[in-house]
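ugh ok fine here u go
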Amino acid sequence: MQPSADLTPAVALFHSLSDPTRLAILERLAEGEARVVDLTGLLGAAQSTVSAHLACLRECGLVTGRPEGRQVFYSLTRPELMDLMTAAETLLAATGNQVALCPTYGTRGRTDATTDAQETRR
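structure:
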């Protein structure tokens, strides 16, 4: 059965949301504007890491930067993004976070893959 529409944009959207650092950035920006320095302090990540994730989110059209002097204040471009995040939290709660047990993408899957890779190297 063929999908009724091109799913490529949806795949790109969900891929852009598939990183924990990017999700944490989006959660913080849901509260209002933030600078890179604010995000590095919150995340405990290097400036270059935060900037790279912001660039990804900006290129995907999910965040925008507002320059003010030598600083840039980042914010969400679309409030609907938080509706998506809320829907995801609702779905996770309804499934009892079962997706975390997914052998491919879940927490257990990543641990097993890491263990397998380590064992292969030995």
